[in-house]
Amino acid sequence: xxxxxxxxxxxxxxxxxxxxxxxxxxxxxxxxxxxxxxxxxxxxxxxxxxxxxxxxxxxxxxxxxxxxxxxxxxxxxxxxxxxxxxxxxxxxxxxxxxxxxxxxxxxxxxxxxxxxxxxxxxxxxxxxxxxxxxxxxxxxxxxxxxxxxxxxxxxxxxxxxxxxxxxxxxxxxxxxxxxxxxxxxxxxxxxxxxxxxxxxxxxxxxxxxxxxxxxxxxxxxxxxxxxxxxxxxxxxxxxxxxxxxxxxxxxxxxxxxxxxxxxx
Amino acid sequence: xxxxxxxxxxxxxxxxxxxxxxxxxxxxxxxxxxxxxxxxxxxxxxxxxxxxxxxxxxxxxxxxxxxxxxxxxxxxxxxxxxxxxxxxxxxxxxxxxxxxxxxxxxxxxxxxxxxxxxxxxxxxxxxxxxxxxxxxxxxxxxxxxxxxxxxxxxxxxxxxxxxxxxxxxxxxxxxxxxxxxxxxxxxxxxxxxxxxxxxxxxxxxxxxxxxxxxxxxxxxxxxxxxxxxxxxxxxxxxxxxxxxxxxxxxxxxxxxxxxxxxxxxxxxxx
Lengths: 264, 270
Prior knowledge:
With 264 residues, chain A is α/β, with parallel strands linked by helices. Chain A is 39% helix and 22% strand. Chain B folds into two domains: 19-48; 53-266, MetI-like fold (Orthogonal Bundle), CATH 1.10.3720.10. In chain B, helix 2 (55-67) crosses helix 10 and helix 3 packs parallel to helix 6. At the A-B interface, strand 6 and helix 3 of A face helix 7 and helix 8 of B.
């Protein structure tokens, strides 16, 4: 059981190639919390996640476990949307053992640890296969195991099930929920799927459409697990979130049309 | 003269033309060779042997050259030069390509030289190589090294620059430092490009060895081809050409077998 870490974003702005992608975001995520970042495409959700992962400079405005983030680290594991993040020249087991091997862990200990996490994600039977022999869902499970083996206090998931079919996505959503309870880590989960956010999150953070995106609303999801989409409270929350995001899309579209008219 | 191949070899689905079995493929290859020999023989019937010796005359010449040991000696001399010059080119080209691909200032510093020399064929350096290194083995090996090192370096640079940034990020978040990123992500990702570079370099090494041996050698297949002129033995030229083709095929096969045995898992790295 790992303990989660808190994440603090204090007036965080992120600029890429001179464009301010997200602007002045204030957000505190408690240790062990499951937070979903929800918003229209291009609103900077993934940019925010990349900053927490340490892939982007955050100018000290971002702290994990009260320490400023200055680069990537094993305390923050990242599950990417694309399974190309797996190393195709390594078997699933070797991918999972990658982190412990870097730390110089003995082979036997490494194998035991990998066995545990492969079993946790239901991949024990495919341990000796190469990623190219796996289905999309299995590859994402392998990514999750590879991250968990490092026992991170924060797991960052960037639309991890975005490329999967609906059935596989549903199974993996349940798995993530189970793993989160088993490990106690903090999870920040980026998605554009409103139901996915409702099924998983303690809190849902919606963002305004970019550029200069910021936090629009924060909804606490106070519903019992496992969550039921047919529950009236879930439906009401779904409608609120849909309207919030819909309003952003409409606003951006109106701005775009106005811009086009001016240009014309 | 130097080419960069951006696309590394990948697993290809064999073109199915109705005959997909191994036996069928070999059968077609044998048939093709027999057709070639038939056409060669047909053409040689209507010309002087000095202009175009027949396959049989060429075979007799090969046996003659084998009996006195000339052919074996020539093959071994050329093979040794190619193997050593090429291996040296690969051994130097791979680390050079990795450093140049990874560190932009280093690449920018060496870029003018790379861009200049890649257009100068090795044959242009034959005279200089003999003046600087003497008429011995060193000059020929150096020329083959020159021809190999550019191809391997340029392909390796292309490979390093094609490394999927997602894998670098994944490795960094799993705890890899700069050296570990190089050894555990960049190096394996670049293997298909290195292999492609090494194979093209092998082909070009054959071009270079013949040029170098024609100009400055008393043994080797290039020298054999050139000496034939003095004795008016056109069939020796054909023996030399056939031997070069077979040697090239053998070297490429050996390289492919070695790659399959040792580097198979890296072939899908891109």
